[in-house]
Design a protein that fits this description.
One of its GO terms (cellular component) is core mediator complex. This is Mediator of RNA polymerase II transcription subunit 18. It comes from Lentinus tigrinus ALCF2SS1-6. The protein is built from 4 helices and 9 strands. It has 200 residues and is an alpha+beta fold. The chain has a single domain, classed as Beta Barrel (Hypothetical Protein Pfu-838710-001), CATH 2.40.320.10. The protein is globular.
């Protein structure tokens, strides 16, 4: 069996009043930064409830599309359960599969036996630092009538995800290098932003 590809990640959140300071520090220590507005749809298997009843957590499928780039394609990705905290206490390390979809990702997911569970929009900034991508965003909910994103409330918490930009294969780029890279960002943001491991 081939080895899994993994994502290594840390995440955190902060209040809107801290945005300028955090934005400045991240911009200063990143190779590039740009605005982001993405649509994300989460799908679950049509028999997800049966799987839960049987004691198995269903594998969710996520579709993401960047709205600010007219040429952007849908990306489909899926995560498996994070590795144990005993194995990787410092960061979330989880098997990760991803593929680009030309055309209608929603029909493609449906053809795979998945049904739509939820949808959100994320608006904020994306930073690149080495082999990491750092997303900083507020979630926007879709208008029930139009499906279009509604601006986030001014007090909505900002979320930050620091993660590997592409799946890490253990042979090519040892996981330890990627873990060190996300821990560097954790150290860099110390005192401004608490980045931590998450198990969801």
């Amino acid at each position: 069996m081939t080895s899994h590809a993994y994502e290594v990640a840390l995440s955190g959140e902060f209040f809107a009043k801290d945005l300028p300071a955090i934005l400045n520090r991240l911009t200063l220590h990143s190779e590039s930064a740009h605005q982001m507005h993405a649509r994300e749809i989460v799908f679950e298997p049509f028999d997800a409830q049966n799987q839960r009843d049987a004691g198995t957590e269903p594998i969710l499928l996520r579709a993401r599309k960047e709205l600010l780039d007219p040429d952007s394609k849908w990306m489909l990705y899926s995560y498996l359960k994070p590795e144990s905290v005993r194995v990787h206490p410092e960061a979330t390390v989880r098997p990760w599969a991803t593929c680009q979809v030309v055309g209608d990702a929603l029909s493609f997911a449906s053809a795979l036996g998945y049904i739509r569970r939820s949808q959100i929009y994320k608006r904020g900034y994306v930073f690149r630092r080495g082999n990491l991508v750092i997303q900083m965003f507020q979630q926007e909910h879709a208008d029930p009538k139009t499906g279009k994103p509604m601006p986030a409330h001014v007090d909505t918490l900002w979320e930050v995800e620091v993660k590997t930009a592409a799946p890490v294969k253990t042979q090519e780029a040892p996981l330890s290098q990627s873990i060190d890279a996300v821990l560097d960002v954790q150290l860099l943001m110390k005192g401004l932003l608490d980045l931590r491991r998450q198990d969801v």
